[in-house]
Amino acid sequence: MAGRRALKAVLIDLSGTLHIEDTAVPGAQDALNRLRQASVAVKFVTNTTKESKRILLERLQQLNFDIQEKEIFTSLSAARSLLEQKQHRPLLLVEDSTLEDFTGIDTSEPNAVVIGLAPDHFNYQTLNRAFRMILDGAPLIAIHKARYYKRKDGLALGPGPFVTGLEYAADCKATVVGKPEKAFFTQALSDVGCSPSEAVMIGDDARDDVGGAQNAGMLGILVRTGKYRDGDEKKTDPPPYLTCNSFPDAVEHILQNLL
Amino acid sequence: MGLAPPLWVAQAQSVHIAMADTGWPGCAKSLKGVILDLCGVLYDSGDGDGVAIPGSIEAVKRLKESDLQLRFCTNETQATREKFVAKLQRLGFDISVAEVFPPAPAAIAVLKERGLRPHLLVHEGLLPEFDAVDKTNPNCVIIGDAAENFSYQNLNEAFRVLIGLERPVLFSLGQGRYYKETDGLKLDVGVYMKALEYACDLKAEVIGKPSPTFFQSVLGDMGLKPNEAKRRETPDCDRRRHGGQPGPGRGRDPRSERARSLRNPPTRRRLEQSSLCVAL
């Protein structure tokens, strides 16, 4: 590790890394406890846009993970900050269950389009409506651009394909606030008080977790759970610092090699 | 040439064709055939059958009376060839199925050639075109302008077929961004093509305009080389962003295109940038 400063923070993806829907990755709870005994800050970063922070927290606590709400940083949090900053009134194409994270934001006469993971809204009529707004000048904000995610019944389209389609239709570029944007990672680290070179990211998405983190100056560890598919480690340049079977293996490596 | 209204080049998308003669009279002398787009050129879509563009019925009649070969190409994928030719005949056009080239028959020829079995994500009205096609155990996906059929569930199904293939193949019948109907702008097949391309990290094969292979198949049917045919079409809606009203049908108002072309006769470079097959 010559040239790198000592590790101060570990960012951990949630869905696909610590758990898959309502099932914890085997050994993940113990691994997290061991990590907490080391002198590193731990933050949970997620592009999950189907659930509010409160719901995420409840699920993780029910699965016996030792987690506090303030340790969770989501792309919804990042989107909300942007809306407040620019004073946009959004058409929120997000799951109903996440609307509580936008409480207090004015959504009357929307002049911006916010797209999250919302299968119920990705129908022809709603996308036409969003498209017409964008043609009329509404900015397109993407909570993230994940290509797909893993559900119990198999892989399913994420918001990325629909954002890409609208960008093509309206000849515009979306502002993406979630992973793998650099700003997402630096914002996640900002209240930990360390620089990216002092942090490592663990996740199951080669491009969004590992690629994004490494692009921001962090180390990236790819785990072979969740949406991981054979050969994903070849999809980032540079390749992941480490590819391992699951979160407990990633933690072992960190404890033995990076502290 | 004895044709009225005169045919000219409309700027569209990019197939690079070299030109040796920039003057219109020169071009016209070596013409042997004409390919006409349908929507936005012969008729405007809308309620019911739509409306024939004034003068177009007579113009087609005159073309047929000349010694020029005539074919029609279109990216129409909401109905079978038989159905929309019947519509054009009801509007008064002298047109037959054998003269019309939409993407679906071209796609079926490609499937046959390459031994492919499609999963279809197309408009209900187009399904009969594929009745004789083996759709079991699909090893490719075809998307058309499916309109209401572009539900999340249907797109997910198409995505799952592609992501499960060792060598995923996606055919898109056209790549348009949007078009105008009476109740407003609607997203076109190209948008969903891009969505699946992004999801699966692949590149779709476009069947239909502006694919050169598509035009070549029309020329092949006419027995002509690219330098012997001229095409007239309306460009896709690719410049409307802010302000202005998009024209009827699929693209800008052909009447304003016409006026613009008359004021600015096509230069060599502009013609090279168009997807027309131009007389040399």
UniProtKB/TrEMBL annotation, chain A:
Q: Which domain of life is it from?
A: Eukaryota
Does the UniProt entry include the keyword Protein biosynthesis?
Answer: no
GO (cellular component) term, any one: cytoplasm
Q: What are the entry keywords?
A: Magnesium, Metal-binding
Among Pfam families, the record links this protein to: Hydrolase_6, Hydrolase_like
Against CDD domains, the record matches this protein to: HAD_PPase (cd07509)
Cofactor names from the entry are: Mg(2+)
Look up keyword Transcription and say if it applies: no
- Molecular function in Gene Ontology: metal ion binding; phosphatase activity
Family in the record: Belongs to the HAD-like hydrolase superfamily.
Q: Which NCBIfam families match?
A: HAD-SF-IIA, HAD-SF-IIA-hyp3
What's the protein name? Haloacid dehalogenase-like hydrolase domain-containing protein 2
TrEMBL record, chain B:
Reactions accelerated catalytically: diphosphate + H2O = 2 phosphate + H(+)
Q: Which portions of the sequence form the region Disordered? A: 226-280
- What cofactor requirement does the entry state? Mg(2+)
Where does it primarily localize? cytoplasm
Q: One Pfam match, by short name?
A: Hydrolase_6
Question: In what ranges is there compositional bias, type Basic and acidic residues?
Answer: 227-239, 250-260
What does this gene product do?
Answer: Phosphatase that hydrolyzes imidodiphosphate, 3-phosphohistidine and 6-phospholysine. Has broad substrate specificity and can also hydrolyze inorganic diphosphate, but with lower efficiency.
Q: What is the protein name for this chain?
A: Phospholysine phosphohistidine inorganic pyrophosphate phosphatase
What taxonomic lineage is listed for the species of origin? Eukaryota, Metazoa, Chordata, Craniata, Vertebrata
